[in-house]
Amino acid sequence: MYTIIDIETTGNGIKGNRITEISIFKYDGHEVIDEFTSLVNPECAIPAFITGLTGIDNDMVRNAPMLEELIPQIVEITKDTIFVAHSVNFDYNVIKNEFKLLGHDFSRKKLCTVRLSRKLLPGYNSYSLGKLTAALGIPLTDRHRARGDAHATVLLFHKLLRAENAESVFKQFLNSKSQEATLPPGLPKEEYLKLPTTAGVYYFKDSKGKIIYVGKAKNIKKRVLSHFYDKKTKEITLCAETTSLDFEETGNELIALLKESAEIKHHYPKYNNAQKRSIQQYGIFKYEDRNGIIHLAFNKIKMTPNPVAICYSPTEARQYLETLCSTFELCPKYCHLQENVTVCSHYKIKQCIGICSDLDMVEEYNQRVNDALQSIKEVEATLVIRTNGRNMDENGFVVIRENNYAGYGFAPNDVAIEQIEDLEMFITPQKNTLETQRIVESYLRKNPDSVVVI
Question: Can you tell me the distance from the alpha carbon of 250 to that of 389, in angstroms, rounded to the nearest whole number?
Answer without folding.
Answer: 7
